[in-house]
């Protein structure tokens, strides 16, 4: 038994926790300014999706369909919860219910997908041992019923079928998390619009033509107006003060309405002002101003006075705001519908567009305000991230001008693929790395970022998950001239970075990491540079390319300086460095290792696809090369032909030959791995007094380039000056 003091302490702590949560959430709403959009971080619906394994009906799209395929939501005003369900057609067969708790600011999957059984009609299904509806496009057919505290559902089409869905009403009880099937409607409707009429405790249901009402208490339908119009409506909302059921036409975006207390004819409104919303928007009634508010997924809203049919567009000019489109220009969802709702307790709207987005809140400005401007604390041209001008890099890319600086707040940006077309851009993350996760998205079938502008600098950005239909997706695909990458991280893409042929382009990569890139076909690599003027890679960590090469370059001039290029224990790359067409190449101060799972015993290859460049010179100076592979290695292979070479001060360890005799006698040294501080940990610095200490030669210079190393690599992807005391050590490091 608890002691009384313990019970009282528990009660006090619980009350304090409740008070703190209440205060925090009060601030969420009370400090919003007129016209402000506010993003709620870490509120992505996709984070609570069911797993695909053993899913009864994943479909061709999966649970993203609950927003992206003609589906809406209802708002539970008693619990302040947005309720979402959807899917249908061939897109998704899961009929689970999701809830977003505004107070807790989190999504919960409150029911699981039902088991399905096929009906006699081909392509149609029924739920097993349940009155739950089969997954369908819900359109604008979800309505919360405050008197009975249930959600109404009607409309849509069968999973795996484009035919009419059954015409039953369905009621969902959030407390019991159970569905109940109701009576059949007199008018079959697919693209449904609906809203609750509090005066009579009924649901108003219609489409572009025809109107019904459903009595929740008696489970009875009533036909209010015969269908006179075949074009479907996009959204429908009741003006309870003027007793008008207002609809947005899905095709023309025109406004129709019914006077519901004498609803026998659809009427066409004659709006004036700034129309222009997108197809299938959301529409909600704002009681305090007695106006309809329309949102199509972007940064603007439209306010409609149903007394005069005057329309006012409220523009959000430079505040953070949702985006209606992905970076490739496609709209994020096939309709907003009920995912735009008014929250009367807090006088704000809740908005949700895509399962990969966060939830947004919106505060309506006063009736005369048409433009919302808020100066950001950002001191550069374009700022990206929560609380900034642009929520995602793709939004900044669409408006960037030549010479702009773009700062991206650290954090994850999912499915935000982007085209950068302006010149002389500086794009950098601040506060840590910005991680661009492709998650199946791509720009123009090429990768995560497609850079067509010239003289672009990218700093502190992480790229992962690039995958495209032709298997050649890249973290960055470069089609412009001149690119600098600094402190970037490319991993788990089909290519890390990929460029086309551009003989005027110079590329610099420094202080960056490339890991586990490659599609496994041998034609995709950590870095793959086409026929450009020059490539410089320095102070970087290239490792674990999947079957392909850690570095492949067709540049006329290559400077590969002070890098760590490795398979380590479990990598299976082919060449560590591949310079397939020759050119002028400097390999200075690198640590290169191939592991026991390597795909090719050759570590560095030069000219293997033909010496096609105007000049052919290879300088390998002060590198440490280690073979941990299963066979004898060829550390450097040079294609036969007129190639000028200089191989000096290189250390090599493990079985194999250094080159085909192009090196000067005694200029390079084979050592046992025991000479290194810790070969098993890939620490290839020489032990004090080891072979090669102070034994290096002066490599001189060539083409105006000094060949003696001045830096050395520091793990991970850093550098330090190489301090030479008594003499130059051989290999990549100075004792």
Tell me what you see in this structure:
This protein is mostly beta strands. Helices cover 5% and strands 39% of the residues. The protein is built from 3 helices and 64 strands. The chain has a 20-stranded parallel β-sheet that branches. Strands 31-33-36-39-42-45-48-51-54-57 form a 10-stranded parallel β-sheet. The chain is elongated. The termini are far apart.
Indicate the mean pLDDT.
90
- Approximate helicity band: under 10%
Report the span from N to C terminus. 69 Å
Q: Give me the secondary-structure category.
A: mainly beta
Regarding quaternary structure, how should these chains be classified?
single chain
Q: Summarize the biggest pleated sheet.
A: 20 strands, parallel
Low-confidence stretches: 1-26
Let me know the number of strands: 64
Q: What is the number of helices?
A: 3
How much of the residues is beta strand, in percent? 35-45%
Radius of gyration: 32 Å
Rough outline: elongated
Write a brief structural summary.
By secondary structure, the chain is mainly beta. It contains three helices and 64 strands. The strands form twelve sheets. It has a 20-stranded parallel beta sheet that branches. Strands 31-33-36-39-42-45-48-51-54-57 form a ten-stranded parallel beta sheet.
